Amino acid sequence: METATIFYSDKNRWTDNELMSLPRDGRKYELIEGELLMSPVGATHSLVCLNLATLLIRFVEGKRLGKVFDSSMGFRLSPKILLSPDVSYVSKARLKKIMVAPEKFLYGAPDLAVEVLSPGDTRDLIERKLEKYFQHGTSLAWVVDPKRGTVAVHSLDAIARLQRLTDTLTGSELLAGFKCRLRDIFKLD
Question: Which side of the chain, N or C, has fewer Cβ within a 10 Å radius?
Answer without folding.
Answer: C
